[in-house]
Write a sequence for this structure.
């Protein structure tokens, strides 16, 4: 049986309530979610000795989240990742999206889904949130109505379901920007990762996908077997060293549309914690938080986050997919239901 607590966490500058929800299972493990950017702000799991600790980076207060510019823990949309020059073409029409990253569009724009206060409610031991994005919002065509469902169970598994519907064709690609650290170490470079991904999107030096998929075999992005995140972080392959670490999108092996599959597992030798990721999305963006230092408030423990303090495993479609027919299409067609799911399953070894 899951217990859900609801409390007032703070107020926005416009006087709107920021609500904090705590989903707790019988063992005392919990997930904390706020309606501000639909952010997951806490996720406690046991280590190999049974000690519970928080495994996601974040902040201590709603006020800190209101100051944050990194979208820490928040949902990202309408489309996650970068869109080259902020331009998309749908049918016979060209659209120019909000350009918030130099000349490009990034993560839904300067006021994307992560920057909104979501409508939220509890139903049947689960948490639901909703947001309506009007036609023309950040340059996107047509109104999109979205809903997120957060489920938590007695095994400590967190499941997020992403739903969206539109009356006309429009791109949708939602994910959560969760940064994981399975121990209390200041860096995740000693964490080990295994991924079911044999190809990675090639990018130019500005991180724009070229449309080419590169084989990962025997490269610094070959995670078919567990490897330290820091092992090849200075490799020149696909600009890893230039970026200061990983920030790459990999195609998941054996992906089938609308089918939940296992993407891989993150583990930490220090704590013995593991985190297995399952998703219906075609790809996963691996990021070692290469530019975190100096870009966010102090963390929930008061510590100042350095680069590589966490690792993101963002289940999503490819960045700039609307401009690359060789990628899975991000276009939500008229009347179609967008339904994607991600599952975070903790464990120990």
């Amino acid at each position: 049986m899951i217990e859900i607590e609801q409390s007032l966490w703070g107020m926005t500058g416009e006087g709107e309530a920021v609500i904090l929800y705590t989903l707790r299972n019988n063992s005392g493990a919990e997930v904390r979610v706020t309606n501000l950017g639909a952010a997951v702000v806490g996720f406690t799991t046991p280590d190999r000795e049974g000690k519970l600790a928080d495994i996601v980076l974040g902040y201590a207060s709603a006020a800190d989240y209101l100051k944050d510019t990194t979208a820490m823990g928040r949902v990202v949309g309408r489309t996650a990742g970068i869109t080259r020059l902020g331009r998309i073409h749908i049918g016979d029409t060209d659209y120019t999206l909000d350009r918030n990253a130099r000349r490009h569009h990034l993560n839904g724009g300067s006021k994307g889904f992560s920057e909104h206060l979501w409508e939220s409610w509890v139903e049947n031991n689960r948490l639901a949130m909703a947001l309506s994005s009007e036609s023309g919002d950040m340059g996107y065509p047509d109104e999109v109505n979205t809903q997120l469902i957060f489920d938590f169970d007695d095994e400590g598994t967190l499941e997020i379901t992403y739903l969206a519907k539109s009356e006309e064709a429009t791109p949708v690609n939602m994910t959560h920007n969760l940064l994981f650290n399975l121990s209390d170490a200041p860096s995740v470079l000693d964490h080990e990762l295994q991924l079911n991904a044999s190809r990675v999107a090639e990018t130019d030096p500005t991180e724009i996908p070229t449309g080419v998929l590169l084989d990962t075999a025997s490269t610094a992005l070959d995670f078919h077997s567990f490897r330290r995140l820091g092992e090849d972080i200075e490799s020149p392959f696909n600009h890893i060293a230039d970026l200061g670490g990983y920030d790459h999108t990999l195609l998941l092996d054996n992906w089938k549309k609308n089918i939940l599959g296992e993407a891989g597992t993150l583990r930490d030798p220090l704590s013995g914690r593991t985190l297995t990721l399952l998703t219906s999305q075609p790809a996963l963006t691996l990021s070692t938080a290469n530019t975190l230092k100096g870009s966010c408030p102090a963390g929930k423990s008061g510590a100042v986050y350095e680069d590589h303090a966490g690792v993101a495993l963002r289940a999503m479609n490819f960045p700039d997919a609307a401009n690359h027919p060789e990628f899975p299409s991000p276009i939500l067609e008229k009347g179609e239901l967008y339904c994607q799911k991600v599952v975070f399953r903790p464990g120990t070894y």
Remarks:
- The mean pLDDT is 96.
